[in-house]
Every structure is written in C-alpha cells, then in structure tokens.
Give the backbone structure.
Amino acid sequence: MHPTRRLLLHHLVFRAASIAPEETVVSLTPEGSCEHSWREVGQRARRLAGGLAGLGLGEGDAVATLAFNDHRHLDAYLAVPCLGARLHPVNTRWSDDEIVPVLAHTRDRILMVDGGLADRVGPILRRCPWIEHVVSMGPWAGGDVSTIDHDDLVGDSVPVEGWPELEETAGMALCSTSGTTGGPKTVEYTHRSTCLQTMALGLTDCMRLSGGDTVLAIVPMFHAMGWCLPYATAMLGSRLVLPHRDLDPMRILDVISEHRVTTAAAVPTIWNGVLAALDSEPGRWDVSCLDRIVSGGAAPTPAMIRGFRDRHDIEVIHSWGMTEINPVGTMSPAVTTREEAAMSPEARIDHQTVAGRPLPGLSLEIEDDEGRPVPHDGSETGRLLVSGWWVAPGYLHDHPDAARFRPDGRLDTGDVASIDDRGRMAIRDREKDLIKSGGEWISSLDLERAIGDLPAVASVAVIARPDERWGERPVAMVVLREGASLSIEELRSELSGSFQSWQLPDDLREIERMPLTSTGKIDKKTLRAGLGS
Ligand code: ADP
C-alpha cells in the first residue's frame, strides 16, 4: 500500500493547523493559562519531535509520561507517535509500586514528567535504570535528578519536516489500566486503530463534535488516551481547553462559563459533582453555552441525565468503553434515528441510560455461561463480547485476564449486558460486581440506578456482603445529600415496585465520602474491604 493511503496519525492530527490555524488550544496550568493556535501546536510538535529524535528516540521506542491535561502533554501526544515511537501515558495517581512494574514491561527510554510531580521521579528512576532521559514539563522543584526542559526542547530543536512512513499497524501508544487482580495490564494502540477511533468520534451521531465546538477535555490524558479527544479536536479544528489537574466541580464550572465551553467529557462521579454544584448555587455559573456532555467509564444514573436535561438544558451523551478497545465502544446521544426523535421525554431518559450502539466498525454480542448466544431482546443478559476495528489483540505481557482475548478476535469484556432489537446495549453489571443470593444473580447496577434516583441520595454503591444462608446479600453504601435522611425500610419501600423483595438490600450504610479509584470511578474494592467481604 502506498504510504499516503495508510492510516497514519500524522495524516489526521495536523489537519486543524491547516483548516483552523488561528483556532486555539487553551492550557490552564498552575503557573498560569496560555493559548496556542493550532498552527503553533503543529510547529511545537515538530520541534519536540526534532528534540526527541536528537536524544536518540527512534521507531518503536517508548516514551512514558506522568502528566496532566496541558499543552505540553499535547505536544507529546502529537510528536511521539508521529515520529514512529510509542507514547505511554501513565496514571499519575498510581503508587510507585504500581508504576514500576508497568515501566518494566514497556521499557520506556524517556520519561516526561509534569513539574508538579518532580518529587516522584528520583525513587522511580532508581528502580528503572533503563530510563535514559527525564524531560521536565513546567517549573521543576525536584531534588537531584538531572532533566531536560520540555520548553527548551520545543524552543531550540530543529523541527522534523517529514514524518516517517510507517506501516499502519505500527504501535503509536501504550495504555496501561489497573487490574483488580494480577496487576496492571498494558495494551498497544496502533496508528490504524487510533485513526479509526478518532474518525468515529467525529461522527455526528457520536458526540456531534465539530470545528465550531469548544471542547473541555476533563478525562485525564493519562487514562485510556484521554478517550482520543485531543486527536479528534486536532482533526476537526475545535477549540480545546485543557484544565490540567484540578478537577474540582466548582473549578470545572468556572472554566466552562469563562471559556464558553460547548461540550466536555468525564466520568459520572465528576458530572454528579458538577450537577450538585449547579443545583446548589443557581445563577452562579452561566452554562448556557454547554450543549452536551459525555459521561463514560462507569454508569450514570437516570437522575443525573434528567437533572442536566430538565434543570439546565444540557444533554448527557452516555458512553461505554474500556482501555482494551482504544477506548470508546458506544455512544448514546438523545436522538440518532427518526424513531428516537418521536420518543416521549421520559422514554428518552431510559434510552440515554442505556450505553448505546456500537460505533461503526465494532460489533457487540452477548453469550451465556455455556457460550451460547443470548437473544437481543433488551432483557436477557449475558457476557458482553466486543470485536472490531480498534479492539486490541491482547496484552503486552502475561496476565491472568489474557484469555479474555479470544483467538477469533472477540474480547470478553468482563461486563454483563443486554442488547435490544435496535442494537442498543445496556451494561447490567461488571461480572465481579454481580451479587449471588440464594443461587440467583442480583445486578448491583440496576439497584444503584434506582437508589441513585431517590432525592435523599447523593451517591450510592451496592456491594455484596457474605451471608451464611444466602451466600451473598446486597448492601447499599450511601452518601446522603446535606440534611437528608434515609432508612433501610424507606429504601425498600421506595424500590418495592421495581424489584422483588429478595433483590433489595437489607442493609444500608451511610458513609461520608465515596472512595474513588485512580480513574475517578467508585472504588468497590475498598468498600468491600471495609465490610470485610
Ligand atoms: P479501569 O479498569 O481502570 O476502570 P477502564 O476504563 O478500561 O479501566 O474500565 C473499563 C470498564 O469500565 C468497562 O469494562 C466497564 O466495566 C466499565 N464501564 C465503562 N463505561 C461504562 C458505562 N457506561 N457503564 C457501566 N460501566 C462502564
């Protein structure tokens, strides 16, 4: 295949520099905010690539980042893959004991680190002697480690003019995700998979992204390639706002109203916080600019979707994905077909609570424990299998979950789902979160959706408690709204119309704060440990 026909990232991500050269990327770093036009972003990437090549970085090499969402990380997002090397954004919230084994697998030659994390570098370097250079991103307050300054590399290096014409199946990134057992897992994204994912994000019935949008990328660039949003905006010429590390809901609202953000993407825990702040101080923030938000990575509640729509006129687009699939699998905008346009407002909330249809190029199936296909009737559930254009072929190293990648190209996601006769997939649970009571399965997610809808509840997680008689019983761990109260009897009576009584929790524990994982999702492992289960 002629190189010009290959799916290579450099054919895509410098498009903004040519179609919207004056449009800007706004970077809100602790040292102050700055703006760069997409033309400048393109030039910065070429110079950073020149600098990294000067350090000896070549095709196939890996460059790890420990960094937040800012213009310097964006430089690396463009420069490293286009140069033929692989970018490896590492979760900054992980401990050294989690990070070091990951770097031991990927053998990154260069480590690029946000200045605010300078004190983390020494201990990591001592355990990772294969790292040859540390690049400091932003003001650096870190002890005895010798570093090369990112801004000097960008300022002083000779820009790369032509990019290498790689095979489209060449790796462009390494993404590591936390595993609950067996340690972190790493997959490789290729130029081909990321180009296709990015093109799909640009579809109208996905996020309705366009060059007219101002996109706030809240989802960390160290998690699942930032859902490829940096690439989608670099393809379309949208304005991109990068909020760095402080993701407090009030600050997010300040940024949205100040920068007139039209769309943003984050996990539901962040959006719940944003909704609560908006509701608690009506009129403080002008969010009339915000047209739609993407909520992905965990299940949103109908109450959240309804709250944004009915009280603030903001559409929630529900998305499902996972690191192993580059990472977006489905999107559920309020309306994509003529049939959906005719739905009643309440039916539309149910429709948006469902994770949605696979993006073009992906297929979803469900199967029972014997491997038989489960019908797509919207109610029967089964293990969710995904296959298609950007599903990774496997992990880079041995892992107990490796067998989830089947030889026929299908990935067993570990999720339990139903699919309806319009191809809409609803996540019903994670396999490991299902509760088995008296031999019957109880979906923690169905209970969480219903309990999360109760006005007294700010956030909820339902987990299993070991039970001598039934095997397991559901426990509702609840954070209540200020001044609200809720007893287990009230909870059971509120839910009795939608669940059988054996499915309902018989234990409610009020907690002050919901523990969160390093990616901002509810941390059920910690909750279970607290219960001794
Ligand atoms: P981690 O394992 O660190 O959470 P991932 O982001 O890769 O990393 O997690 C993917 C998993 O997150 C999915 O397999 C699924 O269980 C869950 N998930 C993602 N999106 C949704 C969603 N919309 N609804 C329910 N669960 C979701």
